[in-house]
From TrEMBL:
The lineage of its organism: Bacteria, Katanobacteria. Homodimer. This is Triosephosphate isomerase. It comes from candidate division WWE3 bacterium RIFOXYA2_FULL_46_9. It catalyses: D-glyceraldehyde 3-phosphate = dihydroxyacetone phosphate. Pathway: Carbohydrate degradation; glycolysis; D-glyceraldehyde 3-phosphate from glycerone phosphate: step 1/1; Carbohydrate biosynthesis; gluconeogenesis.
Length: 216
């Protein structure tokens, strides 16, 4: 089962998010045979997207979680609050520049709250440190993350080499300028269990085309 995750990052107004979800609900392939779809909107849009995509089979993810369980932590959002709307949480993305220690604390915060962490990493040596039962890993390529809608050229052989070095028992997806042009090649890489889609996921039609490629 391939995991296709849309990471919206800090994009879309409330109106744009509603338009996206409404359109996506209309065009998402039904039924999905070989893939699970996850959407990670901005925190403020989680309740809205949850309502629009309810009973579509699409799961939601948060883009971060507090280190703390609950209490006097202004500005923080805990796992017990997130789990009302989502089952997954992206943590450790390279854009956040967090330490491994912080990522591990957030991993455990997810697991103790009943959320599945999608842990981003860019160094294969961290796999065994980050891995734990109930965890999904996302191998990032920080040099290949799209900027302002511009996708960078992929070195598919390099990505294949990265995944060939990963432990076979670990579920690892890939993130780095994923789009409809490179998705067919990525879908055939051994050990690649899905993708974390950034800029391309902001267009519901583009995202659906990526889903269809992996769901074959």
């Amino acid at each position: 089962m391939k995991l296709i995750t849309a990471n919206w990052k800090m994009n879309m107004s409330t109106e744009e998010a509603l338009e996206w979800a409404t359109r996506f609900r209309e065009i998402i392939p039904k039924p999905l045979v070989n893939s699970k779809v996850i959407v990670a909107p901005s925190l403020v849009h989680l309740p809205l997207i949850f309502e629009v995509l309810y009973k579509t089979g699409v799961e939601l993810a948060a883009q971060d979680i507090s280190l703390f369980e609950k209490g006097a932590h202004t500005g923080e959002v805990g796992g017990f609050q997130l789990r009302d709307f989502c089952k997954y949480c992206i943590i450790g993305h390279s854009e956040r520049n967090e330490t491994t220690e912080t990522v591990l604390l957030k991993r455990d915060a997810c697991l103790s709250s009943g959320l599945t962490p999608i842990i981003c990493f860019s160094d294969n040596s961290l796999v065994r440190i980050l891995s734990k039962k109930g965890v999904i890993l996302a191998r990032e390529n920080p040099q290949n993350i799209s900027v302002n809608g511009v996708y960078r050229e992929d070195n598919i052989e390099a990505i294949e080499r990265i995944f060939s070095e990963l432990p076979k028992e670990t579920q690892v997806i890939y993130g780095g300028s994923v789009n409809r042009q490179n998705a067919p090649k990525l879908a055939h890489i051994s050990g690649l269990e899905g993708v974390l889609v950034g800029n391309a996921s902001l267009d519901p039609q583009h995202f659906v085309e990526i889903i269809e490629i992996f769901d074959k």
